[in-house]
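Late entry, written up from scratch paper. The run itself happened at the end of the previous shift, but nothing got recorded in the book at the time, so transcribing now.
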Amino acid sequence: MLQYTGMTVSELCQVISSSLKRTPELRNVTVTAEVSGFKNYLPSGHWYFALKDSSAVINCVMYRQNNIHAAIMPDNGTLVTVRGYVDYYSSTGKTQLYVDQLQVAGIGTLYEQFAALKDKLQAEGVFAKCCRELPRIPRKVAVITSKSGAVWHDILNVSGNRCPFIPIVLVHSGVQGAGAPAELIQALNKAQRIQDVDVIIIARGGGSMEDLWCFNDEGLARAIAASVIPVVSGVGHETDTTICDYAADVRASTPSNAAEIVFPDVNELIQVVWAYSKDLDHKMESFLRGYLDEVQKMKDRFQCLSPMNHIHNLSEERQKIASRLSNVMNMRLNDYENLIERYGTRLNKSFDFRMINTDAQLKNLKIRLESISPLSVLDRGYAVVSDSDGHVIPDTVRANQVKDIQIRFRDGVVGASRKE
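Output as recorded:
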């Protein structure tokens, strides 16, 4: 049996690093290429990215003490010229280009394609069609992503924590490579046919521009814009932007953020329902109070129009009028009684005065009558001759015409007959 005596991993890494350092061509390298997978690591301020061409990629790092002197912070697709040295990073087993200087060389090919497609679709108004509002509480949500990736599990965790009672359906599709756009379009059409789905999430985790390039497909962008169901794009990390983001109704910074946008927080919903319940109670109480006031007003009006109430009012009015009339009559009677009493007193006085005057006049008339009465003449011895009917015979002519006569003396009458 052969016995092998080899190096340790650390010894091998040291040999590789020493070999790279002993190669003069790798100690001062200038490379012009397109930036991909750029990341600004905020805790340290270091930049991590890759430089690529059509057939190769090399990882790069530019430490903060060097990148603070750079004219710009590059973006994915930017064509740059960098200078630095190549070394082996034994902790990760990567050969990296350590960049000391960086300057812009132009726009990379992928970025040119991205910008051209974006301008084309924007000019056609494809992006303007995508601005629909998402339902506050979806009936069912379809997620288009790879079933083998971590994105599906991240969305499940977020939806389960926020609103577990909303059904969620996975529509599997490839999310990287040449065949991915066709699979994504097919998955999008399938998701629109699922019953009760009213929101679609299309999602993928972060990656380089090449990894996310399938989401810059023109056919996929048009399919998303034409979707009858609102689409939320949750592709890549916060700094990643794809054509799908512009074509979708809502753009999320990450897949987890897409789930946060689509699935409402059940605790917030409870608070909203509680607030609506209190507001409804208040409005209902106010409505009922107003309704009862209106009913009371109508009841009062009906009571006013009620015949019995009208009769009662008339009875009360009659009693009031009778009382007023009685008071007026009593006042008038009192006035009349006082007036009668005054007139009676005046009448009695006037009557007494008239009686006294009349008595005086009667006495005077009696005296005068007695003074001219024939009876007073009889007292002096004279007599009055009359016929049998009592007519006075004033002379002899008349005396000769009657046979029987009467002679009245002071104390009586004596009959007599005339003789030839």
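Residues 50 and 59 are 4 Å apart (CA to CA).
(Scratch paper discarded after transcription.)
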